[in-house]
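Hi everyone,

Forwarding the result from last night's run.
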Amino acid sequence: MNSPLVFPPSPGTREARRRSAADGRPVIRWRHGMPLLRAVALHAGPDARRAHWVGIRRDPAAAASVRAVADGNETVPTVVLPDGPARVGPEPERVRELL
C-alpha cells in the first residue's frame, strides 16, 4: 500500500491546484508509510485515483501548506477541496464522500 504504484505520480502543488479547480476533485497531500493513508486508499478503492495526490516529501510547498493548516505539524493525509477548505486527517469515509 505504500508503493508509488498504488498512487499516481505527484503533479506538484501548483499543478494539483490547477487540476482541482478545473475538475472539482480534491487534492490529497500525503507521504509514504502513514497508516491512515492506507485506510483512506483502501476505503476509497478505485476512486482514490480520482484525487490529485501530492507527496509532501518531494514538494516543499505541499509540506508547508500542510503545516499551515495543521498547527505546524505535517499531519497527513490532508485533503484540500477545490473551494479552499482543508481537512486534516479526515476519516476514510469522509474522503470517499469527497471523491
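The beta strands are 27-30, 52-55, 78-80, 86-88.

Cheers,
N.
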